[in-house]
Every structure is written in C-alpha cells, then in structure tokens.
Amino acid sequence: MSEQGSPQPEPRGRMSAQAVSRAIRDDVINGVHRPGQRLTEEAMAARYGVSRVPVREALRTLEAEGFLHSRPYAGIAVVELDDGEAEDLLEVRALLEPLGAARAALRRTPEQLGRLKELVALGQDAVAGDRLAEVARLNSRFHEVIAEASGSRTLTQLVTQLSQKIAWVYSVQLPRRAADSWSEHAEIVRALELGDEELARSLVARHIDRARSAYRRRTNVVYDS
Amino acid sequence: MSEQGSPQPEPRGRMSAQAVSRAIRDDVINGVHRPGQRLTEEAMAARYGVSRVPVREALRTLEAEGFLHSRPYAGIAVVELDDGEAEDLLEVRALLEPLGAARAALRRTPEQLGRLKELVALGQDAVAGDRLAEVARLNSRFHEVIAEASGSRTLTQLVTQLSQKIAWVYSVQLPRRAADSWSEHAEIVRALELGDEELARSLVARHIDRARSAYRRRTNVVYDS
DNA sequence: GGTGCGACGATTGTATTCAATCGAGGTGAG
DNA sequence: CTCACCTCGATTGAATACAATCGTCGCACC
C-alpha cells in the first residue's frame, strides 16, 4: 500500500453512500483501484471523505454487482479478471443486446430517443477530443439507455451491469480506443427512431460482433461497444 | 403494517449481515414480504434480531440484486413485479442457460457432477413430499450449479440472479407446482456426465422452452426451471 | 535450527447515538 | 369550505464508539 498523497481526489462536496458507490465504481472501472487490490474500509472512508458506514454500504453494493469480492473478516478486494472474462462478457452481451434493441425500436419514448442522440453527439465529441475515460462512460451509458428503452427491467439491469463490466475490462486490459463505433451508434439510433425492430436487432448484433472480433485481434477498435 | 407477533421468526442463532441478506431474500422469494411492501430498517432489525447497520448492508445488497428499490429518504420497498417480468426472465434465461450448459459439459468437475446428482435426488424427494418452498430452492440451486460448472463467472452471476428471481416470480404469481421437470433435470445431468456439449445445450434449451410455454398456459407445470 | 504456540496489532463486524429529511396532520387565513 | 403553511413525528443517513476475529511476529520449546 503506497502512502496516500491526496485524501480527497475528487472533492465534489460531501458524498453520500450512493455517491460513494458511484465514485468507487468509477475508480475501479478506470483502473484507480487495480484488480486484486485490497480495499480497506478506513482507506476508502478517508479517500472519499465519509465515515466507514456509507463506505460499507457502497462496498456491499459493488460486491453484489460483481466488481468486488469479500469474505468475512478477510476484507474486500477488487475482483481479479480471468482471461476469458472479456470474451464471456461480450458473448453474453451479444445474446442480450439485440433483444433489447428490437424491443426498444417498438417502445422507445421520444425523450429516450433525444437522450440517445445527445449521447451520440457527446460521444463523437469525446472521441474527437481524445478523452478516453469519458468515451468509455458514454459508451456504457448509450447501451444502458437502449436497454431502458426496451421497457424490460430485467434487460435493463443485466445490460447495465454488463456494459459497466465491459468498460472495465477494456480499460484495464487495453489502453487503446476506437472512433468508428460511434458512427454505428448513430445508425442504431436511426433504426430506433424508425421503429424498425429487425433493423435495430441486426445492427446491434453486428455492432457487438465487430467489437468481439476487434477484441480478439487485440488491435485498433477498443472502447467499442 | 400489522403488529409483529414474533420478533424472531427463525431463531437460527444470531445472524450476521450476510445471513440477514439471505434471510430477507428468502422471505421476499417466499412471499413473506410482498411486492410493494415497504421495509423499514427498524422493523427488519427487530425481525432478524440485529441492529440497523447490518440490515442496511443487506438491503443495499438486495437492492443491487434487483429485489428491492429505494430512493433517498423515501425508504426501501419490495420491487413490484411487472406483468411482463416473468416472461422477460424466462426469455433471458432461455438465451443464457443453454450456453452455460454447453460449457459445463466440457468443464464440469466430478465434484460438481456429484452435487448435481445429489440435488436431483433431493429435488425428486421434495417433489414427492410436496415441500414447495424447498422445491423452488433446489430448482434455483440446480441451475446455479450448472452455471458454476460452466467456469464462467459472468454466467454464474447472471444465472444465479435470474434463477432466484424466477423462483420469486413463480412463488408470488402461481401457487402450483410441477414434478416432471426433475426428470428433465436428471437427463441434463446425464448429458453433463457424458460431456456432450450439444446435447446439454439442446436439453437445457428445450427444458426452458417447456417452462416458458407452461407459464404461458398458466397451468400445471410451475416451479419448473 | 525448525516448529508450534501465544500475544499483539490491524481490520472487520456490530451497536449506540446524533443529525438531516420527508410526510402527515393540524391550523389559520382567505 | 379550501388551500397554503407550519409544526411535529417518523424514518433514513451518517458518525462515533465498542466488540469480535484474523494474520503476523516473536519467543520458547522440542
């Protein structure tokens, strides 16, 4: 454990348990807390400027989401990523997201469509500006919003977990990025706007297939999703 | 909120946070806490014989798992099940579990095979003895063990969440049960023992399809999975 | 010199206490 | 009579304090 130079790395006012949860999750996804690293409650409390109680609640949440692992009295640590983990995540996503997209084409609200367009704009902007962490975050959010638009709470929850984990895997394992996927995102939004169920389904399926093969080649396209 | 006659309904010694989490989850699945019902921290603390702190941690865990829903200062309540929720769960499971079964056929250990055989025996016994809650629990466990045997942490986590939710949906919405599915379970175990990937995949796919159509007919087979 | 045992420090788990916020019920003015 | 406002009770959110447990280091003993 290295000494902590800065107690509050992001002093965005005093955080509550939910905010602590988000902050720790972001720090895990962005590699601030590395896989296998042990997270002591007191260190987290100091880091985020709260007491141990909200920290514990946040850690339980993240444990349930699969980012952390704990055993009684043995402490809590960041999950170690298996080699096959990334491929598993992409394979499962390849099963789930086309289904969600097809439903979203039928059920999306105008508000959701607007948010998606906004996300595409922000994403393309972040790509142009080379802001990697922001690209990853927007990517996850994009797929989460589509899942929400499917109207299925089950799909929403699962896709949200998956896309966050995928962003994590990418950021930890691959320090590169891709730009093209955001034009595919724009295509997907258009299909949703048209309400074309099968087009949305196939576009998302192809989109994710490309991400998978790009990942397999370990080259170029990353942060794709 | 009716008055609490019995402070500790299951006095299995003093519970810790993890045990409280399991206990509340079981009570939700078995309909003790009904959908929409608000769960105050103090009532839970009294019910399970601990203070509010471990209760809060358990509630955060269950919230992340999707059984409960909370908003700041608005309290925490059992999620209300949509009408389409059950079908969504079954549809997603129909996508995921055949994949898990195929992998399990290749990677299952002898220990896991033994546990599955034991579960089949226990399940058939519980069916014969008409112990509904136990049948549901064993059902979930059976599918969870197969997912574990797939060697994919992603699949394990998702299938575990799904099977528990499905047990919940069934127990809340349908007060009937089925016996036959356990003979199908036995068939699946045999395929895993043979190491036949495609047989395992197709048996699980058919198994879940039957559960889905049974559910749609709203008759006979329940607690099937 | 190696090994087993025991005490200490560190960390987690829980309880108690206090502060912040929300909603319901009452009260008074219009 | 209706509605706005305000006060109060209840509940959640957070901090502090205390107890239980684990790992490690050191020492005695074999």
Polypeptide structure, described:
Two copies of one chain form a homodimer. Chain A has 225 residues and is mostly helical. Chain A has nine helices and two strands. Chain A has two domains: 17-78, Arc Repressor Mutant, subunit A (Orthogonal Bundle); 85-217, Four Helix Bundle (Hemerythrin (Met), subunit A), CATH 1.20.120. In chain A, a hairpin with a 3-residue loop joins β1 (68-71) and β2. In chain A, α2 crosses α3 and α8 (181-194) packs antiparallel against α9. Chain A starts with 16 loop residues before the first helix and ends in an 8-residue tail after the last helix. The structure holds a DNA duplex (30 and 30 nucleotides).
Helix fraction of chain A?
55-70%
User: Could you say which structural class the secondary elements and strand pairing of chain A correspond to?
Assistant: mainly alpha
- Overall morphology of chain A: globular
Strand content of chain A: under 5%
Stretches with pLDDT under 50, minimum 5 residues of chain A: 1-12, 219-223
Distance separating the two termini of chain A: 34 Å
Reported by name, the CATH topology of the largest domain in chain A is Four Helix Bundle (Hemerythrin (Met), subunit A)
Assembly level = homodimer
CATH class of the largest domain in chain A: Mainly Alpha
Report on the biggest sheet of chain A: 2 strands, antiparallel
Give me the count of strands of chain A: 2
Annotated CATH homologous superfamily of the largest domain in chain A? GntR ligand-binding domain-like
- As laid out across the biggest beta sheet of chain A, the strand order is 1-2
Order of helices and strands of chain A: HHHEEHHHHHH
Radius of gyration of chain A, in Å, reads 18 Å
Quickly give the CATH architecture of the largest domain in chain A.
Up-down Bundle
Name the chain pair whose interface involves the most residues: A-B, 36 and 36 residues
- Give the integer mean of the pLDDT values of chain A: 85
Q: What is the overall number of helices of chain A? A: 9
Total domains of chain A: 2
